[in-house]
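Annex B, item 7. Sequence and structure tokens for protein A, then protein B.
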Amino acid sequence: MRRIFWLFILVLVTFPALPARAEIEIRAPGQQAIPLAVTLFLPLDQPRPEVAAEFNAALSGDLDLSGLFALTDPAAFLGDARKLGLVSIDVDFGQWRLLGAEAVVKGAYSVRGEELVLEARLFDVVGRRLLTGRRYVGRVKDARRMAHAFADQILASLTGEEGPFSTRIAYIDNRSGHKELYLMDVDGGNAVRLTDHRSLVLNPDFSPLGKEVIFTSYRGGNPDLYRKEIYSGQEARISSRQGLNASGRFRPDGKAIALTMSRDGNAEIYQIDTGGKIEKRLTQSWGIDVDPSWSPDGRSLAFVSDRQGNPQVFVADVDGGNVRRLVREGKYNATPAWSPKGDLIAFSRLEKGVFDIYTIAPDGSGERRLTFGAGNKEHPRWSADGRFLVYSSDQDGKKAIYVMRADGSGARRISPAGGESTHPAWSPRW
């Protein structure tokens, strides 16, 4: 398992002192975006154009997904794009202003054996100054992850909040002939299988530190809950009570798990510790209670119950009090996911035989439909910064994993071709 992980050294460049925040005005996705030029990085010694191209593609993809930038067409670039410019005095800002760019990404790389050194810079074209810069040292195959790290840094520089592009997405895929747990980058790269249960694996969820994943597996003939350390690959079955042990969700402090169990015949939500010991029962209803999702402060739960006839999303305090139906519209609402900032709950609704994704405030106001068109869109989960949602869809015929911005724009498929992919979960920052 260790081979799937990577380490590269990030060194703050020692160029001119950087401002805490950029003067470029950042705007919300969907509004007028910042014109940004992303140049192809230049070699400092032996050229390796495939390395530069891989970095450029990953960085451009991340920045485009953010919805904050309008990327300048590289075909329009002038001579400065072919000149090294790691400090502001070496950048011809006048050329970039002619193209309408307000910011430009420039950089250089050096490859020695398997070692890759990347120097990445973001310049403010209007202010004619360096906004941020990083040096990354790692392996050649780390180029994409260096790009994701610099995309996170660009968002941090311009918005004050780091991006989620260096995180991971866990999901279920059947390409092996069985539904197994996989892990991939946010853009679908570096996909790797985590389980070999040769059975049915479902519903992954990351621990708050991202070091562990819990999931349900039928490996032992029953839907049992497993916990797996991602770095070591060590795995343990932590709840194997008769009936369901499904839809486990780590509490935000990582010290407990909300879990659907049917040990007494009816599906209810319990709180267990990370070793599997039952601490308390969280729901009390004749109906079926499933799919818990914690509020960020760990004091409330959103969940699905059919206690009023059809599956609906409810919210309750963790002491069992203040139970209230969250969503009033629709006859079938499911798979709630509380946003990391606590301001929204995403869920899926079945109407006319098709699932689509919606968001709503925790007080039940402001319901908004995010997805449209053919095919089901379901199982939404939030990115660590709340800017994006990941979900599964069969809109192209086979089930696959997609990401979109929190306002529903910019949707794109990320899971690799070859299998059917479902049940995504977005990791915290690593």
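Protein B:
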Amino acid sequence: MEIKKGDWVQIHYIALNHEERVSHLPEDTKKVPFEVRIKGFLEDEKAEIGDIVTIKTPIGRLVKGKLEKVNPKYEHNFGEPIPELLKINKDKLFLSRDRGEKPQS
């Protein structure tokens, strides 16, 4: 696959090595580098996965890093459902019904 200037890509770089991180972090966090993955538009004329490239982010920042993906999708989520919160929502629904209130959507 040819990756060319203007393509939407994701890069990766190490922002801080573990010895450069602040001292008040949890021990397990202090042991690893602070890594950044960021998406933007490729500034280089052409590239291949693994190349060091420059991207321009949607707000105009120029950032250099190792090219990881082309057309990366958004993969974030809010994690696993929390059973206690699900129960609270259900209890609130029944409370509202008992008071004659319409449930909020």
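Comment on protein B: Residues 86 and 92 are 10 Å apart (CA to CA).
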